[in-house]
Amino acid sequence: MPQLQHGIHANLAQILHQLLQVFLVGLTIGMTRTVVPGLAETEFGLGGQQFFLLTTFVVVFGAVKAVMNLFAGRFSDRFGRKRVLIAGWIAALPIPFLLLYAPNWGWVVAATALLGINQGLCWSMTLNSKLDMTHLNQKGLVNGLNEFSGYAAVALAGVVTAWLVDVYGARLGLFMFGTTVIVLGLLLAVLVIKETRPWALAHTQGIKPAPAPSLGQAFWYASWQNRNLLALNQAGLVEKFTDALVWIILPVWFVSQNLTLVQGSSIIGVYALVWGASQLITGSASDRFGRKPLIVGGMWLCGIGVLLLVLTHSVWLWTLEAGLIGFGMAMLYPTLGAAVADVSPPAQRSTLLGVYRFWRDFGYAVGALSMGLLAQWTQGLDVTFWLVGVAMLLSGAWVALTFNKE
């Protein structure tokens, strides 16, 4: 058996296959970004002031994805990356059918629970596999490439599904798009993806093995005992407030500002596209200039951009602000994952990244629930922008004051 080699160039073909996988994963979640909030009103009557019910699908998505992230790393260390990836695609197969035939909002919530399983297992595995195959000093670049591919797909899916909805209707449009993407992802995962666990083990050669902690021990260590991981985990949780705002609140808020679904989708698409594309720069920049400046700067830029959205009243300014928030996310998002990998022993990296992803995506549930309750209480949406903007500014300050490991 030939000796395994690390590095992007040495494993280019498999890394490109993995980038295609995360692109398909991004398409799967992207198809829900603007259409599902629209379905809430047109198909199930959740418009008007039913803000809390509107947020339920993201609360469920965030909770399920967080748990899947936590166990995905552990499962992949035990059973292999490829098996977990395939399991994630299998879980997604019923989603288009649930959305097509949904008689009530509960079916949509069930579909997003399966979406959380898919995203937690598949997105985690595409990143873990690329980290396995590349050099340790390429972590920021790899995170940037991974998130660029995934979030470029999120932006593309939002535009394509908005067009399909105009032509075929929301249910049939989502069914056609979702079925094609999910089946393709599953087939490619089975036929062309390689198991990369051996590359991860090769990273540990020459390192004296330490006793592997239990999942509970790893969770406690990363969530409380380690000061750097605690700072990174809280930042990951809070930054999902921003994405939850864009996912749930912005489509409805733009409609309340007399924009069409296509206009609102286009502005939201700018956010996702800038986020995705900019990570080609910011991921590798964090390898060169350090993690902390990009994390803190990104958190603060997002916070300012969110507050500006509610303070301005122009389509062009909203578009500019969406791009500003997208660039802030590009600064912090791949950098947070790379920073967690920095302070994680290679043998436990997948598990500790799983703990980080648990807290990060649990932010969807915490953020969506908080926004839903506040909006319901005040009978308005503006307060949610203030909640998210201030939370991002304070979270960035926490990282600035406590994170010291570069």
UniProtKB/TrEMBL annotation:
Q: Which UniProt keywords apply?
A: Cell membrane, Membrane, Transmembrane, Transmembrane helix, Transport
Looking at the UniProt entry, the stretches that span the membrane are: 12-31, 51-72, 84-101, 107-127, 148-165, 171-193, 294-316, 322-341, 362-379, 385-403
Where would you say this protein principally sits, based on its record?
Answer: membrane
Q: What is one GO cellular-component annotation here?
A: plasma membrane
Source taxon at top rank? Bacteria
Q: Where in the cell is it found?
A: Cell membrane
Membrane topology, as annotated, equals:
Multi-pass membrane protein
Q: Name one GO molecular function term.
A: transmembrane transporter activity
Please name the PANTHER family in this protein's record: INTEGRAL MEMBRANE TRANSPORT PROTEIN (PTHR23517:SF3), RESISTANCE PROTEIN MDTM, PUTATIVE-RELATED-RELATED (PTHR23517)
Record protein name field: MFS transporter
Provide the taxonomic classification.
Bacteria, Pseudomonadati, Pseudomonadota, Gammaproteobacteria, Thiotrichales
